[in-house]
Amino acid sequence: MRVNERQALAELKAVDWDVIVVGGGITGAGVAREAVRRGLKTLLVEQQDYAWGTSSRSSKMVHGGLRYIASGDIRLTWHSLVERERLLREAPGLVTRLGYWFAHYENAFPGPWVFGLLLRVYDLLARVRDHRYVKKAGFLAQMPGYREPGLRGASRYTDALVDDARLVLRVLAEAQQAGACLRNYTRVEAPLQYAGEVVGVRLRDVLNAEVVELPCRVLINATGAWADRLRAPLALTPRVRPLRGSHLVLSQDRLAVSEAAIFMHPDDGRAVFIYPWEGRTLVGTTDLDHRDDLDQEAHISHEELHYLLRAANSQFPSAKLVAADVLATFSGVRPIVSSGKGLHPSQEKRDHSVFLEQGLVTVTGGKLTTFRQIAIDALRAAAPRLGIEVRDRGEPVFAAAPAGRLGSRFGAAAVELAAQTQAGEDQLLPGLTYSWAELRWSLRHEQVVHLDDLLLRRTRIGLLWPQGGAEFLPRIGDLCRQELGWDMQRWQQELSRYQQLWQTHYSLPAEEAR
Fold this sequence. Notes:
Oligomer: single chain
Number of strands: 18
Helix content: 25-40%
CATH class of the largest domain: Alpha Beta
Mean pLDDT: 94
Distance between the termini: 42 Å
Structural class: alpha+beta
Largest sheet: 10 strands, mixed
CATH architecture of the largest domain: 3-Layer(bba) Sandwich
């Protein structure tokens, strides 16, 4: 994105909007990208910050979903694998291929033969051949410290990892470059109706309380776990079952892995992953009903923390991990479309759903990996109201970008970022992969409103460094005052806000701090 100055909300009334997209996560970003490429006048609004919800707190995986084959959902796996390969081609460096290992033990299911058959189908759907079986010694050389008693060997296959928040920001940047208008911190007050049909929306600027009513040809509800809230004024039956998934962030000094390990939790047999990400090790995820206020950031519970610690220690017994080893935690709320059958959370399908109800198009559920296909399906539902035909022509989401770290994160804007870099600001922050120039660019061009926008989503410093990056905050404060015009009072307010937010939602549960 290239606009830090936010135009007045009232100025948006001068445009005859074809599509207004509500929700600034990966689904909304994808819808805006696909809408504007079809020549539609498109506005996207987000009540918090871009990627504030699920899309900055996912498991960071771009994958086909191996378990969906086992449950018979071949179509979802196929779509996911096609999109995985597309993202690896279009966004190298941002999306990176990674090896995944599943260890096999004596008299344990599934054995190498059954799992190998599953992987053959997986690779066939992806049109790659990328799996193999490795005997015990070879596996332990790759994964030292792994549980040895009864170990026969391990199967290896590949999927991919991503910085989920930066993925959202790159898709939004592509949409904006093509002509979309983007606004964060802009809340929907209510859909506007005429003759029983949705014809527009009432918006409120969260920062200055300005309110405006905007007509549009189609309103698309891409708010994920919040989807039923926008549907409620239409007296529609709730459909979304919010499920929470939590993760631990560990230093590689405490648990070093170069590739991912997937295994079944000893308590309940759920699949758990341990994998490298941004120089740290992640352990996740949980899967349970989220009954807290959706407007408050989700946070890990005491039970989830120890569930994940037990999982990691069961596979790496010599690590002897305890709560004090956790650098940070993060929890996201998945928007699962409920079957209404009272299924266990892990048994609910992960397919996306699109509803056209009283003129409102709602799209929810689905996987980060398939955001492009989800967006096209949402526009197909809206097509009759737009008077267009929506075809999937397979056009790339991303324009060509320079190779390297900056190109992967900022796309074509990396060239200008490099040109604007001030003396000494190309240095990386110690122990991290972010430069001071990247922070300055985000403050200048990526609609940063609060300090947590910068440290938890534009960069991931708050997840990767002790105490949310406290060591770097004095210099970051200087940057914020220079680029955002904050005085010392505003900086102190933002600092206090961020530190409280981090302690409550990204650190250990309150029970552990007592």
